[in-house]
Amino acid sequence: MSDLVKSVSDAQKKAQVVDVRTGDTVRVYQKIKEGNKTRIQMFEGVVIRTDRKDSLNSRITVRKITSGVGVEKSYLLHSPLVEKVEVVKRGKVRRKYLTFLRERAGKSARLTGKDFDKSINDVHDAAAEAEEIRIKEEARLAAEEKAAAKAAEEAELAAKQAEVEAAHAANK
After folding, report:
1. Contact indicator for 101, 48 with CB cutoff of 8 Å
2. What pLDDT was estimated at residue 8?
3. In the prediction, which pLDDT does 4 show?
4. Distances (CA, A) of 62 to 83, 92, 94, 108, 143
5. What pTM did the predictor assign?
6. Are 17 and 68 found together in one domain?
7. 31 lies in the same domain as 61
8. Which residue in 45, 52, 131, 165 has its CB near the most CB atoms, within 10 A?
């Protein structure tokens, strides 16, 4: 039974994910579906928690302060809704959970920076890239279809206008 569960969970995992650590400042690109439209939204903040790095349920909690209010979001790294995670800065920390940052504000909430290899962000997921290309192609086709419908409607209106002008000229 456990072999079956393991094989199913391994099939759901992404081929590669970025090595995200506690204290990193990251940008998380997430797919948001609104009605029949899909867009990508970015959330940038400090990783205050990492959980279960090697499992399908690996999760990061990202915190940022917006308009003086702290906002935290948790992301499952292997979720199909998470498009990509990009490490912007790496912070020097000695803990796994940075929950003490919740009580801090301003300069005391800053973490000391540390040099890191920016090539860790070069993670390519072929399936995600193909999905992104497909979404862009669908959007382009929908825009072309809408433009063609608008052009046909304008041509119809121009024909009606010419017909009305011809009838008006005949009555004079």
Report:
1. yes
2. 72
3. 83
4. 15, 16, 17, 18, 35
5. 0.66
6. yes
7. yes
8. 45
